[in-house]
Specification:
The chain is 37% helix and 20% strand. The protein is an alpha/beta fold. The strands form two sheets. The protein has a five-stranded mixed β-sheet with strand order 5-4-3-7-6. Strands 1-2 form a two-stranded parallel sheet. A hairpin with a 2-residue loop joins strand 6 and strand 7 (145-153).
Length: 163
């Protein structure tokens, strides 16, 4: 058996299991959809580069990411930005004050675009679920404690600029 044939067989054996995909609807902002597309393109390029370098592990990792981001793109449901700020909703920026006096502002976004350190929270996260549908001035329960919704801002665009 030639070495080329053995090498081809080895390539077929490297296949990483798929990343778990959330069972929740894949709601995204316009920026979130663009980020999914960018991630898919990034991993397609990484796969191409890995194949060119004959790096099967990197190619397998890139294929895994391509499967994930392809499925997320296929299931993405862009939620049109709302100008309504009477109640907390997907895409809105919400400010709450907790029992201890701390104020927190966050934007409710899709699961793949959420990054709490940057002030974005997934629409399925307990924090977002606690405020969605509630109005400014209402008291909600967050992590077993009361918090008051101080402000709800609809956003002009997906860059996070307030109206």
């Amino acid at each position: 058996m030639s070495r080329a044939f053995v090498k081809e067989l080895e390539r077929e054996t490297i296949d990483l299991s798929d990343r778990p995909v959330s069972p929740h609807p894949n709601f995204v902002t316009k920026a979130g959809r663009l980020a999914i597309e960018a991630a898919l393109h990034r991993f397609e390029a990484a796969h191409k580069a890995a194949v060119a370098k004959d790096d099967e592990r990197a190619a397998a990792a890139a294929r895994r990411e391509m499967r994930y981001w392809s499925s997320r793109l296929a299931s993405a449901q862009v939620v049109k930005a709302s100008v309504d700020y009477s109640r907390a909703h997907f895409g809105a920026s919400v400010t709450v004050r907790r029992d201890d006096g701390r104020e927190q502002t966050f934007r409710i976004v899709g699961e793949d675009e959420a990054n709490p350190s940057r002030g974005t929270v997934s629409h399925v996260a307990p924090l977002a679920r606690a405020v969605i549908g509630h109005a400014a001035g209402e008291i909600v329960e967050i992590a077993g404690q009361e918090a008051v919704i101080l402000k709800i801002r609809a956003l002009r665009d997906d860059a996070g600029d307030p109206r």
